Model the fold of this input.
Amino acid sequence: MSDRRTQIMEAAVRVIAEDGVRGLRVEKLAAAAEVSTALIYYHFKDRAGILRAALEHINHRAQTYTDVPATNPRTRLEQMLLRELQDTPEVRQNSIAWGELRATAAFHPDLRDSLRTTTETWNSDIAALIREAQTAGTVADSVDPTATAERLTALVEGLSERWHSGTLALPRARQLLTGAIELELTSP
Amino acid sequence: MSDRRTQIMEAAVRVIAEDGVRGLRVEKLAAAAEVSTALIYYHFKDRAGILRAALEHINHRAQTYTDVPATNPRTRLEQMLLRELQDTPEVRQNSIAWGELRATAAFHPDLRDSLRTTTETWNSDIAALIREAQTAGTVADSVDPTATAERLTALVEGLSERWHSGTLALPRARQLLTGAIELELTSP
DNA sequence: GTCTATACAGAGATAGAC
DNA sequence: GTCTATCTCTGTATAGAC
Done:
């Protein structure tokens, strides 16, 4: 991928995080990326192409920025999940943009494949961590890693959207998530 | 509110559920409502007015359609939550439209107040049900009704969005939710 | 590869009759 | 209150020079 493409995609994340997919205007994207609209069309063909590429890009960012210093698996698990609920520009941008793409996928089936892949990757990363923790003895064997991972990541998304829509304060969101992790990992 | 207004708003829910907020075209709305575009502008002033009213309308619908035949509190709780994850046209429409509303609120702060109110109502309804179940002895007293309600409703929203975006099959979503309810209501 | 300038379509909004 | 007809503007996309 050329430098220009990444430059435009980085700008796309910012613009989408600010105005939403719904509010994405090619001209504004061009301004944000400091290039002409024509160049954007040259690289991405059309608006749908821009969106597809932006999704891939956000996807890629989302997969990588969650790495966390290695301590014990259970702590890493908590940190990985909590990291999505942090008020830093990078996380906020990514999280908003990611939410937008999810929402958009409800109306654009062509976006779904890559969305599904990323979600599955995230789920199985979390599930793997749970299994590690089980091996280490910090989590009970009775816990179902797959289902637990699916629930926790879905909860993160739900909390995250409430945060961004102003329905839920961030500290409360983190608190609720911590409670859920506690509950999920402490078997009956 | 006049009949015409409600007629148009009912159509708006359908159109938004189908195309999203961004995909809402006044002309299409007019066709769906079987009126002229001019009439819509007459009643709602401009596109923003249409949207505001539509979101209020969705809000209102969302508050009412979750009533459930009275059995014991715990069962009603499960049914109220599971009801959001059903593949009937009405639920699907409402749920998609509601998701759109939430997503849109991230970029339109003026929508947040009514959104927050509705969410809080939902939360406290669920919390009340949990307290009832505690009184009835079906749920342990150690459960925190407020936090549990917040987590469960947020999870429903997360699962719901995954369902609509094609990331998660509906039966699986229901299964995960049931599991979460089980976990939340069965204290350590 | 990248720009400036521009064509073109589609959607929001209004005028004016009934 | 409601319609038909139409105006205007915004945003997508392309042509063509460099």
